[in-house]
Amino acid sequence: MRVPGHVTAGFAIALGLALLTGAAGAQTAPTRDDIVGKLDHFEEGVELDVPALKQQVMERAKTRIKNDPGPVNRPLIAPDLAKLPAFNAQIQFDADTPIIQPESYQTVGRIADALVNASLLPYTFLIVGHVESNSKTREANAILSQRRADAIRDVLVNTFKISTKRLQPIGLGEEQFLDRAKPNSAVNGQMQILTFAKVPDAAPAHPPAAPAPAAKKPAKRH
């Protein structure tokens, strides 16, 4: 059966639009230099106890407060993080899991390349997970954001051999939106890499102490 020309043309146009839509939806990984440029202007660290902050996030996420101001007006749980150099990464995960989708591995690889750049080697970094406001509980989102931050750390350490001593993962869930005015926005699901502190100087090696001289035995009397 012969297909009318106008049908063939219409199909070709539809196919072209589908291909363009797919290309537009493809994730574009940042360059190493983009990431280095965001992270290499560290001036001063902030006083932050990461284990204590993790506990505070979970406690606040579990608390049912009658007068909770809601996601738009909820106070930031760690406002000082805004003082640190930051790179916001669009990492795609499987829904409600810490499983990184394959198309995001290139972005994680570029982050790894940046972290071993000479200008960033002297520093440690926070991997900060966020989650947009959704139908899940704040507690569930706090847990998910921590698991996703842990997943990024694990890939950087196990696949790209970044020293675990330079990375600290922390999930903030809904307790610190990236866009407080739009808590449901997908931008609030981005991961952040923050330049946190300088790598502590290694303690200078000391030569082993010389053994004490053996005590002389008293001479025998004859």
Rounded Rg: 26 Å
User: Can you count the helices?
Assistant: 5
Count of DSSP E strands? 4
Fraction in helix: 25-40%
Structural class: alpha+beta
Note the main sheet: 4 strands, mixed
Residue fraction in strands: 5-15%
- Trace the largest sheet across and list its strands: 1-4-2-3
Give the overall silhouette.
globular
* Uncertain runs: 6-25
What average pLDDT do the residues reach? Answer: 83
Helix and strand element order: HHHEHEHEE
First-residue to last-residue Cα separation: 130 Å
Give an overview of the whole structure:
- With 222 residues, the protein is α+β, with helices and mostly antiparallel strands.
- The protein is 33% helix and 12% strand.
- The protein is built from five helices and four strands; from the N terminus they run H-H-H-E-H-E-H-E-E.
- The protein has a four-stranded mixed beta sheet.
- Helix 5 links the parallel strand 2 (123-130) and strand 3 (167-173).
- The longest helix is centred in the first third of the chain and has 21 residues, at 5-25.
Question: Topology, pairings included?
Answer:
Blueprint lengths: L4 H21 L6 H8 L10 H13 L23 E4 L15 H11 L7 E8 L7 H21 L8 E7 L17 E8 L24
Parallel strand pairs: 2-3
Antiparallel strand pairs: 1-4, 2-4
Helix pairs in contact: 2-4, 3-5
